[in-house]
Amino acid sequence: MRTRRIFALCLLSCVTLAAGLLPGAIAQAGPGINDQNTASESYYRLDVPNGTVTARVDVTVQNAGPQDMTTAVLWAMPLAQNVVAKRGDDVLETKVTPALGMDDLPTLVEITLPRQLKQNAQMDLVMTYDVPSQTSEMVRLEAGATEALFVSQGPGSFVFLDIPESAENVLDPGCLVATDQPADVKGAGLQRWVCGEVTLIALAADDPSLQERCAGLDDRCRQRLDGSPFSAFVQSISDPSLQGLLSAVVPMGRGDVTLELKYFKREQAWANKQFEVAKSALPRLEALFGFQYPHDTITMKQSHHIGAIGAAGVAFSKVGEVLLATDTGFDEEVTVHELAHQWASRAKHFTDSFMSEGLSEFGSHSLAAELGYTPIDRGWASFGFTDGLATWRNGSTISNPDYWYGRSGAFWFEYEKAIGGRENMTRVLSLVDDYEEQWPLDGEWFMDRGEEVSGANLDELFLTWVYNRDTASPLIQSRREAHTAVGPLRARAVDYGFAGLPTDLQQNLDHWQFTSVPNQVAEATIVLDDYAKLVAEVEAAGLPQIDNVKNAWHTQNIRGVAGVVLDQENALRAIMNSTRVLEHETEGAPSLRQLADARAKWAEGDLVEATRLGAAAATTSFNEDAAVKMIALAKEKQATFKAGFLGRIGLLWKDPAGDIIRAEEAYAAEDPTKAMELAEGAYKAWDTADRAGLIRLSGLMGLMCVLSGGVWWLLRRLDEPDQTQRLDPYAATGGHNLGDPDERRPSWKDWENSNH
């Protein structure tokens, strides 16, 4: 946001605050505007093709004064006609008077109440009227175009605007499309907008929840500011020849960006000038800040409304929009300042105003000579204030905007000088986009990045300009000690071609947590010592230097980097051990090919595979000799083997002769490990055949014993006599034959005999 040095106060603010200046008839009527409270909804239907408006005001008036209230005073649009006030179906007496007797100012309507209102009593009223075509500084209604400031009833008001949907419409951002669109409005081809506390709503354009609440008519969004009945500017054009719109395609880093300026047609000269400045400024600002504009479009809107609160411009970087006031005295500077906010936004990029506003000042002042305007001199240094920039809106009692804007803009030029000039300044600003995960960034970030880029000591610069020296000095001193400790480590890493620092060390520096930094520096130094030894050993081994540690240095913590160094050491040891073992190996041997593959994986940085292949190469060489010897032993055993009864039993389901054939095939296929395993299996099969046969027969005999024992037990069980049954003397027999207790159960022998 860019603020004016002197605000333009609205003329009607004086009217509402000075009841004594009202026309005599109203002044004599007892309580006036300042003695009543209102809650109102004003409905305007715009007939843009004919240049007229119809209005209805639903209002609740309350007696806020000590005397009984007999009249109510409401606002109407300038030159209001056919004014009718009602309470229910009763038409009330009205007196219509132009404010201060001037027809181009809003109309005052004095309504005689049907009964007196006691203190704090209230009454509902309805007022309707028509607004004819007219031309003034505040309202321009002509066929095909409406450019008007619409009137509310002050605090407690909503203003509804029914606007032709097919027209080219521009409203201040403080007005929103209403959630509820009545059928009669839609049926007439209109769209209803709602305006409440438009200034605060406009400044909260990046807050979707607030926008949604206000569009749904949350009472908290009603007009709050006192002193003026003004609500919002509206431009609605149904005649294309009257449309105030400029548009152009501007080549930018991300591609073409569409630049638009929506304005009030009568201020064409102003619009042309600002648009040309904007077209020239956009690519230059992108080059100055060093990172790309993120949107496909950027829309600038002229707004007389924001000037009422002292704002010369407002930027919304999240949506790519800019509001511009008119006749500020430094319009071109305001335009560039607000465009610079697309790269320097407090809400999006930075935590404090001295960064967002100061960098936007830096941008507009840097381009001033090139774009042909002279920045205003705010004279901030002559005020005698010394409050640090970090206290702006954060503890300082100074409210003078010229001091803050002037000091913050001047600071960034001092910062640029301290870090070595414009090239380094752009390098630092370009890093903003690289740290998106840390947005919004703070002043500490700029201090750190400035020193990293330039190597300069920025302690005194920030203590003088930004922080409170008394409270910040101990922390700045701790920071300096930590960075001094890190300096040799950082320089040594640069010698190895490494960028940055391990993540845990860098995180502590970024968050200004310095207690553990000395220990981390010591640990990281040991890692670099180990790496230095490793580099020498790799060079001696004739292997290429690889980037695994370099890549890990700034992407992993200290332990992670140490682990990568250890992995590289293990891979090197495996390769060098196999190299020594295979020193006299025959050329073309499988083991040598594995060793060559291990070296190739090393060069690719695949340490896991390099370690595996390096170790396997020596194993393969050993297995080659072992496989030849084992095949020979197996064949010798085959030649001397004589299978007896036990041997034949032991070789059941085995094929040692086939295993020898498969072992020779595997050896021929350069798989000595498999060949050795097969040959060893064949040798053991013959060597242990008798013992294996004996074990199998013993197992079979044991199984037969178990089966025999089981049969014997079963037969014994079937041969046992039945036990004598005990009779219950008290139990009834029920006619059943209980049998002879001495009679035994037939045995299995009886059953067997009965079948013969």
Tag the structure with descriptive keywords.
756 residues, alpha+beta, eight-stranded mixed sheet, six-stranded mixed sheet, 25 helices, 19% strand, elongated
Brief write-up:
44% of the residues lie in helices and 19% in strands. It has 756 residues and is of the alpha+beta class.
Structure write-up:
It is built from 25 helices and 22 strands. By secondary structure, it is of the alpha+beta class. The strands form four sheets. Strands 6-5-9-3-2-13-16-15 form an eight-stranded mixed β-sheet. Strands 1-21-22-20-19-18 form a six-stranded mixed β-sheet, covered by helices on one side. A five-stranded antiparallel β-sheet has the order 10-11-12-17-14, with no helix packed on it. Strand 21 (311-316) and strand 22 form a beta hairpin. Helix 6 crosses helix 7, helix 7 packs across helix 8 and helix 18 (558-581) packs parallel to helix 20. The radius of gyration is 47 Å and the shape is elongated. The termini are far apart. Mean pLDDT is 86; it is low at 4-32 and 733-738.
Q: In percent, how much strand structure appears in the residues? A: 15-25%
How would you characterize the largest beta sheet?
8 strands, mixed
Termini separation: 120 Å
Look at the helices and sheets and give the structural class. alpha+beta
* Average of pLDDT: 86
**Helical proportion?**
40-55%
